Automatic annotation (TrEMBL):
One annotated GO molecular function: cellulose synthase (UDP-forming) activity
Location of the active site: 167, 465
Transmembrane segments: 47-66, 78-99, 619-640, 667-686, 698-716, 728-748
GO CC field: Golgi membrane
Residues engaged in binding Mn(2+): 302, 326
Annotated membrane topology: Multi-pass membrane protein
Organism: Vanilla planifolia (Vanilla)
Keyword match Flavoprotein: no
Pfam families associated with the record: Cellulose_synt (PF03552)
InterPro entries (UniProt xref): Cellulose_synth, Nucleotide-diphossugar_trans
UniProt family annotation: Belongs to the glycosyltransferase 2 family. Plant cellulose synthase-like E subfamily.
PANTHER family hit by this protein: X-BOX TRANSCRIPTION FACTOR-RELATED (PTHR13301)
Broad class of where this protein is predominantly found: Golgi
Protein name: Cellulose synthase-like protein E1
Length: 754
């Protein structure tokens, strides 16, 4: 019944889909000679499970100690409340630790054999979606380099269509894409003739030190194009002579990025036999889309853009597979389409795969990854673990989707993909297609449909990717994670502390929304996903909730030290052993894992600092913001991550791995206050402990607070020592000191009372 209802919904809402069942579909399936990919289980799982078990035992022993401590406490209300809070935090940490163990339980690695696909005569069409939203934060020259890297994939060009969604509705971005459509005629044959591996022209030419003579020509063409684009962006308008040209004439005065009609332009029409590159070979299709925006209709950020792209592409090319990347994520591996198709086209195991997710990798990280932007542990350890349970989450970029699954189809065993979908697209004139596609990129088209609910990406969540992938998993599909040696996609990671914390705040807001909604993996996935898979989602869904126990721990601890209140066993007592084991073993494991995933030792240390800052800064403010949104005081937003900085000073400090604070922000006030609190308590607490002869009972707290102080060294430098513009502002310094001192003074009187 559900199945029927769903196909009905599916067909209704996809009015424009051209469904065809071609006889050659079966012959193509027969061509396959065996499996197209293999799966290997990770090694060393027995040792890992033993280790996890030892951790669990020690964690339980620490609880026994807390129980004993509570029973033996002198009945003071303050102390009991303190200890209960501590126990609650520790129970949460243990629970979260348990959740993170699920993905380490049985990770798998996948290896496609694309050589087998090279021989196939019939290959499916592939559509590629790139989203951009702001010509300032996302420079058009960077966007077109991404676009060109994708258009130059090692794949029959006439089967590829690239769609750029421009949520900025900017003529500057359109101009850049128009330039790219001309340059593509040189770039694509150049890549193919010289077997260029780096197919993003920006990256290729920046790394090229000594070009061959014939390469100069293309390099010059590229550089001229970029300088024209940059000039246009700087001036904020296009050359006069282009204004009346087709496409450009659709912009008129009075249009803003938030208020304009839909604009759709097919810049290169792959169906047209006359659309050829300089070598006379066919070109891919290239389409610009700026969906309609009106102030009175909510546009649902990237999810809205993606859904408009799904519909628009279904009219123009309707490929069965869709690659989605962010505008800064260029293709770094020209074979990714073949690799991904190995999973989908595998006769035996490919039928239930909804999407193939690649890791998010970055090309602008420094050696020791100051802001922990590499996500190395996520890519190297956690996502393979998800795959063992039923597949990685959709992380918004670097992902190949099966169109049907993305459009909301429920998986059933009788389901068979139509590989030839889109190949029989009606031979309509491009302007008629443009007209039809424009009609479905309007604000009102989705009203009273299931778009954003059951179809396409889901609306209303700041991590539209994760919640949409989860919905696909709940519909019976699996996904596959592929992390090739040669990275498939590379993007830009935030280069200032504020950008990094803001990005994590947005992610945390989204994850929190998922936890407290019916989309929570434990509710939505109940009976539909394996328990391990539900728990794996918990790793990210529970991120924000970690902030409260962490804040409790990091504030209460030093204050108790200052007041001489002992929370842990004496350093000479055997009860200290389980605590020490949990702390040391957990960190040793984390360090080893981090190193295996490609971090440096200092990189791991930096990631520990970021972990702390994210928890007390991003996650905490995400909780505050979600509460404010729930109460109607604030609206969900999407702060776009900046992909370029003009400030040479900031870039230099980033290269030198100096933490960039800059102008004040609530993040920095919290971080500064916590850092100061720990420093003051560490110094005075230790002094008091020595004077009162209580070092033995307070040793654990001295050590813990000491670790926090060490982690915060860059914060103290930013507060007191640095002179450059990246230091913490004076107002932040004063506020941090003020908060920390008043917390200390307030508790000193209470503390003596305990
Ligand atoms: O209204 C909007 C806002 C953003 N975007 C695009 O969405 C992408 C991601 O935005 P970015 O600012 O780069 O955010 P990140 O935090 O780097 O993105 C990660 O997290 C997002 C969810 O929060 C996912 O959508 C992304 O795919 C994922 O890479 C970019 O291409 C934007 O152009 C839009 O198209 N419309
Ligand atoms: Mn991004």
């Amino acid at each position: 019944m559900i199945q029927h209802a769903n196909s009905f919904i599916y067909i209704m809402a996809n009015r424009c889909l051209i469904l065809c069942h071609h006889p050659s579909e079966r012959s193509m399936m027969r061509n396959g000679d065996g499996s197209l990919f293999r799966t290997e289980k990770a090694k060393g799982r027995k040792a890992f499970k033993l280790f996890a078990f030892s951790m669990l035992c020690c964690i339980m022993m620490t609880w026994v100690y807390r129980g004993k401590q509570l029973a033996e406490s002198d009945g003071s209300r303050w102390l009991t409340a303190l200890l209960l809070g501590l126990l609650a935090s520790e129970i949460w940490f243990a629970f979260y630790w348990l959740v993170t163990q699920t993905v380490r339980w049985n990770p798998v690695h996948r290896y496609p054999s694309k050589e087998k696909l090279y021989q196939r005569s019939q290959l499916p069409k592939v559509d590629m979606f790139v989203c951009t939203a702001d010509p300032i934060a996302e420079p058009p020259a960077l966007v077109v380099s991404t676009v060109l890297s994708l258009m130059a994939y090692n794949y029959p060009a006439e089967k590829l269509s690239l769609y750029l969604s421009d949520d900025g509705g900017s003529i500057l971005t359109f101009y850049a894409l128009w330039e790219a459509s001309l340059f593509a005629k040189h770039w694509i044959p150049f890549c193919k003739n010289f077997n260029v591996e780096l197919r993003s022209p920006a990256v290729f030419f920046s790394k090229l030190t000594d070009p061959l003579k014939e390469w100069y020509h293309v390099k010059n063409l590229y550089e001229e194009m970029v300088s024209r684009i940059d000039d246009v962006v700087e001036l904020g308008r296009i050359p006069e002579k282009l204004k009346e040209e087709d496409g450009f004439s659709r912009w008129h005065s009075g249009m803003t990025s938030r208020n304009h009609e839909p604009i759709l332009k097919i810049l290169l029409d792959g169906r047209d036999p006359a659309s050829l590159d300089m070598d006379g070979n066919r070109l891919p299709t290239l389409v610009y889309m700026a969906r309609e925006k009106r102030p009175e209709y909510h546009h649902n950020f990237k999810a809205g853009a993606m859904n408009a792209l799904i519909r628009v592409s279904s009219v123009i090319s309707n490929a069965p597979f869709i690659l989605n990347v962010d505008c800064d994520m260029y293709s770094n591996n020209s074979d990714s389409i073949f690799d991904s198709l190995c999973f989908f086209l595998d006769e035996e195991k490919g039928g239930n795969i909804a999407f193939v997710q690649y890791p998010q990798c970055f090309d602008n990280l420094t050696k020791n990854d100051l802001y922990a932007g590499s996500l190395n542990v996520v890519s190297g350890s956690e996502l393979p673990g998800f795959d063992g349970w039923g597949g990685p989450p959709y992380i918004g970029t670097g992902c190949f989707h099966r169109r049907e699954a993305l459009c909301g189809r429920i998986y059933g065993r009788d389901y068979k993909e139509n590989w030839n979908k889109g190949t029989l697209a009606v031979r309509e004139n491009a302007s008629i297609l443009e007209q039809r596609a424009t009609e479905i990129a309007t604000c009102t088209y989705e009203h009273n449909t299931l778009w954003g609910k059951q179809m396409g990406l889901k609306y209303g969540c700041a991590v539209e990717d994760v919640v949409s992938g989860l919905a696909i998993h709940c519909k019976g599909w699996r996904s596959v994670y592929y992390n090739p040696q040669k990275k498939a996609f590379l993007g830009t990671s935030p280069t200032t502390l504020r950008d990094s914390l803001t990005q994590h705040k947005r992610w945390a807001e989204g994850q929190l929304q998922i936890v407290f909604s019916k989309n929570c993996s434990f509710i939505a996935g109940h009976n539909r996903m394996k328990l391990g898979h539900q728990m794996a989602y918990g790793i990210y869904n529970f991120w924000p909730l970690n902030s409260l126990p962490t804040l409790y721990y990091i504030i209460v601890h030093p204050l108790c030290l200052l007041n001489g209140v002992s929370l842990f066993p004496k350093i000479s007592s055997p009860w200290v052993l389980p605590f020490a084991y949990v702390f040391i073993a957990k960190n040793a494991y984390s360090l080893a894992e981090s190193l295996m995933c490609g971090d440096t030792v200092l990189g791991w240390w930096n990631s520990q600092r970021m972990w702390l800052m994210k928890r007390i800064g991003s996650y905490f403010l995400a909780i505050v913001n979600n509460i404010a949104t729930a109460l109607g005081f604030s609206r969900l937003g999407f702060a776009i991550t900046s992909k370029a900085t003009d400030d040479q000073e900031v870039s230099k400090r980033y290269e030198k791995e100096m933490m960039e604070f800059g102008s004040s922000s609530p993040f920095f006030t919290i971080i500064g206050a916590v850092a100061m609190l720990n420093l003051i308590c560490f110094v005075y607490g230790m002094k008091r402990a020595v004077v009162n002869g209580k070092t033995e009972t307070l040793m654990v707290q001295i050590l813990l607070t000491g670790v926090v102080v060490l982690l915060n060294i860059p914060v103290y430098e930013g507060l007191f020592l640095r002179k450059d513009k990246g230091r913490l502002s004076l107002s932040t310094t004063l506020a941090s000191l003020g908060f920390a001192m008043s917390a200390c003074l307030l508790t000193v009187s209470k503390g003596t009372a305990i």
